[in-house]
Each structure stands twice: as C-alpha cells, then as structure tokens.
Amino acid sequence: MIIDFRMKPPIPAWEPLFAEGKNALSRLLNLKGLEPVRSETLDEVIREGEALGFAHSVIMGRGSEPGSSNEELAAFLASRTDDRFIGFIGADSPEVAGAVAVIEQFAATGLFRGVSINPAVLQPRVPVGDPSWDPIFVACLKHGLPLSITLSGFLGLVGSQVDYDYARPGGLARAALAYPDLKIIISHGAWPFVSEAISLAIFCPNVYLSPDLYLGFPGSKLYVEAANFQLSDRILFGTCYPNVPYDFALSHFRSQEWKEGVLERILYRNGAELLGLPYSFE
C-alpha cells in the first residue's frame, strides 16, 4: 500500500486547477519528454492510483480563492464515505492573522488532518519560521494538526521578490525546537538545499522530509543516504500529481538503493503514523 503525501485531484470546482497542473512544472523545471497525465475525471484518477497500489492521497489545500478553496475541499471531503483522500487546510494568506483564522475555521469542521502553507504568500516576505509565524505554529498545535511547509529553491525565484535563499530550511530550526510537539513536514524536501534539510531533520526529531518529485533530481540521492542512515522513519513519499504522472514519481523512489525495509516505511508506514492511519508491519 502507498500513501501519496502531495497531490491535487479534479474535485468539483478544482477541474481547471487540475488541468493547469498537468503542464505547469514540466515547463518551470525543464522536464523534457514528460507526457502529461492522461486522466481527466476523479474516477479516472482514482482508478489510475489504485492500479499502482495507492491507498490514500493527501490533498494540500491552497487558500480561499474559488477554484482552489478550502470551502470546496471541505465539501468534497464531507461527501466522501471513506478515507481515500485526506485534506490539509490551505493556510495561504498574505497575513499571519489571516492564516490563523483559516486554520481555526476549518479545523473546527473535523474534516482535515493537517495544515499546508506556501510561505511565499505571506507578505511582506519574512524569513521562513520567523517568530512572527508563531501564531500559526500555536494554532496547529492547538488542534493537533501537522504543518506542511512548501519549500524549494524555485519558491524564491517566482513572483516580484526574487530571493534564491528564501527557501533555505535552516530558518525552521528555531520553530522546530520551540515547538517540539509540532510535526513539521518540508514538502518538496527544500531541494536543492538537501544537506541543510537533512541536517535540520537529524537535529529536530519533529521534522519530516517529503522530497516528492525532486527525488531523482541532481543531489537528491542524499535523501536516500539519509533514510538509510538515520531518517528512515521521517521521509515521506509524495508525487505532486498531476504536475507529474504517478509512475514518474513512483519509479524514482523504487529505483533507489534502499536498505531492506526502508522503502516500505517511506511508501506507507511513515505517513500512516503521522496521519493516525492503521498499519501492520512485522
């Protein structure tokens, strides 16, 4: 079984976002020869994932804009009678107070199992994990929700404020140490600052790394080395589907040289423990 820790499906009202995502990253990341995802409907996406062994998929919320809103995601989650899809509240807001208000509003629904934030949305840009973020960390802890923070080098290269170093994960050390009970997931694994992200996770046992589609990129074998060495319980599998196809992401994980039992942990058990899902391993 597999838990995909980052994807977005064509749920009602998100269909244009899904269609746009099929080509978005292949252009930005110069991924040559990558065929767009063929599935178009939710049923097709589910069948495609289940054929590869996907048992659960985490949908990272984005914010309040129609076409990608928490309201639309909450309605979708409420309509489900299973836990095939797991939602994270999208706390993207230009203000910390706005992010906290969103967390409070949607945590109260009981429909979500985590919080997701793109730090570049906060304005003005402040260092990742800055003390001004503390109300966000406190709100996540209050509701017992892990926090996924999207970090990669491209985060600082898009938008009007170009700052390549903005996505360096070291700034999270203060928050991770100040809030040791808060589970912090670095989505995109903070690539290309791989060594820095690994060092942070080794030092802070509440930090998880989800390299998702960046496993296979230059320098990404360090994630594998870290998992084989001492982080086998804190690396998560994700696809970024439909930015890349399921088999593209899965093949990069399965082709690595993992120690015995490590890949099985990464594909399912680590995510299950984090999300409170059942698992059974000998």
Automatic annotation (TrEMBL):
DNA repair is among the record's keywords: no
Residue stretches making up the Amidohydrolase-related domain: 74-277
GO MF annotation list: carboxy-lyase activity; hydrolase activity
Keyword Lyase: yes
InterPro entries (UniProt xref): ACMSD, Amidohydro-rel, Metal_Hydrolase
Record keywords: Lyase
Cited Gene3D superfamilies: Metal-dependent hydrolases
Pfam families tied to this protein: Amidohydro_2 (PF04909)
Taxonomic superkingdom: Bacteria
Protein's recorded name: Amidohydrolase family protein
